[in-house]
Write a structure and sequence with these properties.
This is Trehalose 6-phosphate synthase. Belongs to the glycosyltransferase 20 family. One of its GO terms (molecular function) is alpha,alpha-trehalose-phosphate synthase (UDP-forming) activity. The protein is an alpha/beta fold. Helix content is 44%, strand content 18%. The protein has 17 helices and 18 strands. The strands form 3 sheets. It has a 10-stranded mixed sheet, sandwiched between helices. Strands 15-14-13-16-17-18 form a 6-stranded parallel sheet, sandwiched between helices. The radius of gyration is 23 Å and the shape is globular. Bound molecules: 6-O-phosphono-beta-D-fructofuranose.
Length: 486
């Protein structure tokens, strides 16, 4: 955290994201605060806490006309305020067009190879432009009088924002971090507004992705589509006399030896028995998966891998239970509502096929869980399954590793995640290969304890060294140095 502050060298930090870190619900005079299910929020929050910056995000939760005026600027975290949260309130039509429409029915399937057809509507595009402008207005207001502001824009909701900010505040140092993959140029060209998106992004001084492959796809797309000079040696682009660097910064989580907050005599076995008791099941071995119920996450393939494993290794029938924590997400979008039903019915089908007595193969906990609750499941599980069909990074993989202060537990990890490039000691699988993924479950449960410990120790070392502060310090450090070079 100290390192991040020193990179900022006295400059003020402004972060922009669509999702806000705390959802405040006012009922009369009572406020309840919840934390949304978002890898981005988990990752960014410790940085804001360390740097006392300003976070601009979409206001959510209950907000009638009266509360909006009073609550568009708050000090958070609510229990121990450390930074400013500036909230931009969107109308239902703006949210529908910009967030559900352009960002999540257009860009999300466009950038993930998960075989859902992107939908691009001209009306959504209008709202996407208008909402990017509204965030630009809020940022410019927040940055008033700042001599050397550093702006970190988050994600695909704001491709147009870098240029809007640079046009209005040319001395701001602006980076955008794209949390999802970038596809190849042919795929990207499906988007009718690809030129505008690229031009908006190239307003930034620095464009970050999780992995080099996504940087390369982005540079190839620019090369193909725009009048711009792509410098493949330095991974940068020159357009209208302005250079943008395009570099990988693999995002991460916080891992300290005492981050589990557990007493030394804490027993992971006792926790497992407690969870089994609470769920009212009979099981000896537990697996866990934690996702938003999103069609990119490979949840159905994962259930089918559990089925294949139980078929091929019948001695685990009655013994192995897979717990899927699935947070509801983007449910206004028909494809998400449909996917939610598919996940439920696949779990029911497999349970009906195998269940006996108090044992069943799949427990689907279909609600949002707090970080604290999720960490209990991580600690109780012999194996964690991350089987995304495509994922920028996937922080569940790193959170599982961070939670295993006992050096136990096996991670099964899709090769199509950014995390697979770093966590080489996971069992790397192709989630489309159902039998192969099922075999990985058997391998995990039968792995020798010394191998489990060796693998987990190496993964913990990696996450500890390349933690979320390292990510922020690298990104901010690079951004500040870029300016000096010019
Ligand atoms: O992975 C991309 C991402 O935008 C994350 O950055 C974020 O945590 C997640 O999707 C959640 O999505 P939403 O904010 O739409 O619920």
């Amino acid at each position: 955290a100290e390192h991040v502050r020193s990179k900022l060298d006295g400059s003020s930090l402004f972060v922009v994201s669509n999702r806000e870190p705390y959802v405040h619900n006012w009922q009369g005079n009572t406020i309840t605060v919840t934390v949304p299910a978002s890898g981005l929020v988990t990752a960014i929050e410790p940085i804001l806490c360390a740097c006392n910056g300003t976070w601009v995000a979409q206001g959510s939760g209950s907000a009638d006309a009266e509360t909006v005026d009073n609550h568009d600027r708050l000090q958070v975290p609510p229990d121990d305020p450390k930074y400013t949260l500036r909230r931009v309130w969107l109308s239902a039509a703006e949210e529908e067009g910009y967030y559900y429409g352009f960002a999540n029915e257009g860009l999300w399937p466009l950038c993930h190879m998960a075989h859902t057809r992107p939908t691009f509507r001209a009306s959504d595009w209008e709202f996407y432009n208008a909402v990017n402008e509204r965030f630009a207005d809020a940022l410019v207001e927040e940055m008033a009088g700042e001599r050397d502001p550093v702006v970190l824009i988050q994600d695909y909701h704001f491709a147009l924002l870098p240029r809007m900010i640079k046009d209005r505040i040319p001395h701001a140092r602006v980076a955008i971090f794209w949390h999802i993959p970038w596809p190849n140029p042919e795929s990207f060209s499906i988007c009718p507004w690809q030129r505008e998106l690229l031009d908006g992004l190239l307003g930034a001084d620095l464009i970050g992705f999780h992995v080099q492959a996504h940087c390369n796809n982005f540079l190839s797309t620019v090369d193909r589509v725009l009048e711009a000079r792509v410098d493949w040696e330095h991974f940068s682009v020159k357009r209208n006399d302005h250079w943008s660097s395009v570099l990988p910064f693999p995002i991460s989580v916080e891992l300290t030896e005492d981050s589990s907050g557990l007493p030394l005599d804490h027993s992971f076995e006792e926790e497992r028995s407690a969870i089994i008791g609470e769920l009212g099941i009979d099981a000896t071995f537990l697996g866990v998966g934690v996702d938003r119920v999103d069609y990119t996450k490979g949840i159905i393939e994962r259930f089918q891998a559990v089925e294949s494993f139980l078929e091929r290794h019948p001695r685990y029938q009655g013994k192995f239970t897979f717990i899927q924590i699935g947070a509801p997400t983007r449910s206004n979008i028909p494809r998400y509502a449909e996917f939610q039903r598919e996940v439920e019915s696949e779990a029911t089908r497999i349970n009906d096929r195998f269940k006996r007595g108090k044992w069943r193969p799949i427990v689907f906990l279909n609600r949002q869980h707090s970080h604290k609750e999720v960490r209990r499941y991580y600690r109780a599980a012999h194996v964690c399954m991350v089987t995304s069909l495509h994922d920028g990074m996937n922080l569940v993989a790193k959170e599982y590793v961070a939670a295993r202060s006992d050096d136990r537990g096996v991670l099964i990890l899709s090769r199509f995640t950014g995390a697979a490039r770093e966590l080489r000691d996971a069992l790397i699988v192709n989630p489309y290969d159902i039998q192969g993924t099922g075999q990985a479950i058997a391998r995990a449960l039968e792995m020798d304890v010394t191998e489990i410990v060796d693998r987990m120790r190496r993964m913990r070392k990696m996450v500890k060294e390349h933690n979320i502060y390292w990510w922020a310090a690298s990104l901010i450090g690079e951004l500040c140095e870029l300016r000096l070079k010019r």
